[in-house]
Amino acid sequence: MGDPRADDVEGDPVLVAVDGNETFEFSVDMDKGTVSAPTRDVTVLNLLARWVRLLPPEAPFPPPPHIIQGKISQAVTQAKEAGNNCFRKKDLSSAIQAYSMAIAMSLDRPLWESSNVVAEELSVCLANRSAAYAAANAYIEALCDADAAIQLRRNWSKGHFRKGKALAGLHRYAEARAAFQLGLQFDPDNV
């Protein structure tokens, strides 16, 4: 390997990286903020480099992925609970707004946070908003949210139940029955 302080033909610094048990040289174009390595695919590195360049200079470096933003979790939970309270009071418009706020906050989590946390939060909020839409006779919106919840948690019976309710509201009874039956496969004791 070359001297890590050397420059390539364009005058950009040549650096050394480790991939498993192998080392390889790469260079960084400081003007463009891109990485190049003749023997490696660095597409993902370049995407990450472009994303980092968009951050303001005072932005902190992302913490490790196992860190969860407690304030965001708390805000999502509060918005979801507000939606639940409005739903119980039959204030469906306010319930939908609160669930939408919880969904937006969950989607605003930093990219380095666990996707499991986001999937859990989103699936619950989407299923709840689906129920509110269905109660407001907005069955297409209810179906969209139920489908999104199922995409996040395929083996969650509540998502399939919400989909079945939305399909029944649209008078698509055969599809509704199939959704209910699929949900029961994941939770056969659920009455």
UniProtKB/TrEMBL annotation:
It comes from the Eukaryota. Pfam families: TPR_2. One of its GO terms (molecular function) is Hsp90 protein binding. Keywords: Repeat, TPR repeat. Gene3D superfamilies: Tetratricopeptide repeat domain. The keyword Repeat applies. TPR repeats lie at residues 157-190. InterPro entries: TPR-like_helical_dom_sf, TPR_2, TPR_rpt. This is Translocation protein sec72. It comes from Malassezia cuniculi.
